[in-house]
TrEMBL record:
Keywords: Membrane, Peroxisome, Transmembrane, Transmembrane helix. Its main location: membrane. It is found in: Peroxisome membrane. PANTHER family: PEROXISOMAL BIOGENESIS FACTOR 11, PEROXISOMAL MEMBRANE PROTEIN 11C. It comes from Microcaecilia unicolor. This is Peroxisomal membrane protein 11C. The keyword Transmembrane helix applies.
Length: 239
């Protein structure tokens, strides 16, 4: 109990850890609240309260992201053109993903400022721009993970064919861990991409057609995968 409490405290003391917890709570509240409201024909006060809480938590994350531009910029500069990447396709997909991520933040900031009456402009188009860049980043992330997955699968097959000794088995285990990580990344990005499309303007694919509980389910799945991958990374030397 003491270890679990200490771990939770450590998580909440870091910005990224706190964001993961808030994100998970946000989508979980939307999932449960949406189910309660739908089952009781919009007459469930507890369901409405959970949806209101989810909305406030989402707003909290939007405000906190006002300070993410510099960290994203620093990461993009550090990555550069990805010359350390073994594969050119992975490199350029990653560079494009970083550009999409970098452009996402100012668009969301302007949309938030417009809603808060800080800027005199309509927020709708800026929310759309931010969702487009987010969705593009997710799509690029999926393609990147698929490319890496193909490369890892080839390496794993090659390792199995030339399997000999304990070092080879250890290498296979490491490759399997990396494969699992990329599969989880694809699943997480697909769940978020489904929500991103839902938040696009009406008329685009299934935009606006998800009930609240389904949005919550997709977000919860993505959030739990993120938490699991973080835990898995800590247990496997940062994989």
């Amino acid at each position: 109990m003491a270890v679990a409490l200490s771990s939770l405290v450590n998580t909440l003391e870091s910005y990224r850890g706190r964001d993961r917890v808030i994100r998970t709570l946000c989508y979980s509240c939307q999932l449960v609240g949406g189910i309660l409201v739908e089952k009781r024909n919009d007459k469930c006060e507890s369901g409405k309260s959970l949806l209101a809480l989810a909305s406030q938590l989402s707003h909290c994350r939007t405000v906190l992201r006002l300070f993410d531009d510099l960290s994203m910029f620093a990461y993009s500069i550090q990555y550069g053109l990805g010359k350390k990447e073994e594969d050119a396709t992975v490199r350029w997909i990653s560079v494009l993903g970083n550009v999409a991520d970098q452009l996402y933040y100012p668009c969301e900031h302007i949309a938030w400022a417009a809603d808060a009456k800080v800027l005199r402009t309509k927020s709708d188009k800026w929310w759309t721009f931010s969702i487009v860049f987010w969705g593009l980043s997710l799509l690029l992330g999926i393609v990147r993970s698929l490319r890496i997955l193909c490369m890892l699968t080839r390496k794993l097959r090659k390792e199995k064919r030339s399997s000999f000794g304990e070092s080879s088995h250890l290498k296979q285990k490491q490759l399997k861990t990396l494969v699992q990580s990329e599969v989880l990344t694809i699943m997480s990005n697909l769940a978020d991409l489904a929500n991103a499309i839902h938040w696009m303007p009406p008329g685009f694919l299934w935009a606006g057609q998800f009930p609240s509980w389904l949005v919550g389910l997709m977000g919860t799945v993505s959030s739990l995968i993120g938490i699991y991958r973080t835990t898995m990374g800590n247990n496997h030397g940062g994989v």
